[in-house]
Amino acid sequence: MASEGSTYGDIHRYEPPRESTAAAVGIVLLTVIQVFFVGLFTYGMLAGWASGIGTTLTVRLIEANMFLGGVLTVIFLDLAFIMLLYRKEFLPDVMIVKKRRRKWEDLYIRQEDVDGTTALDEEQLVDTIKRAVYPYYKK
Fold this sequence. Notes:
Elements: E1 11-15, H1 21-47, H2 58-90, E2 93-96, H3 103-107, H4 122-133
Antiparallel strand pairs: 1-2
Helix pairs in contact: 1-2
């Protein structure tokens, strides 16, 4: 479904999501793994693995911190794969028409102001500030 319009906000291209069953099963399995590692990390923090409670050796403390850091890394990588699968398989690909901005629009408020402006009175200053804050301000 595509429109031939070129006005701002028109949908230029729309591709529906695939919604595959394999991706859904993959997301469920990754979620189960995510819950396991979050539980392991939470248990490790509550048991004091990284705080040195019950240990006298510095080496064990460093290994416990590295282990909990690795578990936290696995948690975020797993979450990244869940979001990647969801975005790829369950969100539509939509391209909309956007307003094209010229180079001078990023630097100046109006095309007439390219060469600079003179001192403004209070009313012009308020209007200029409104245009700077909201670029599509209409009179």
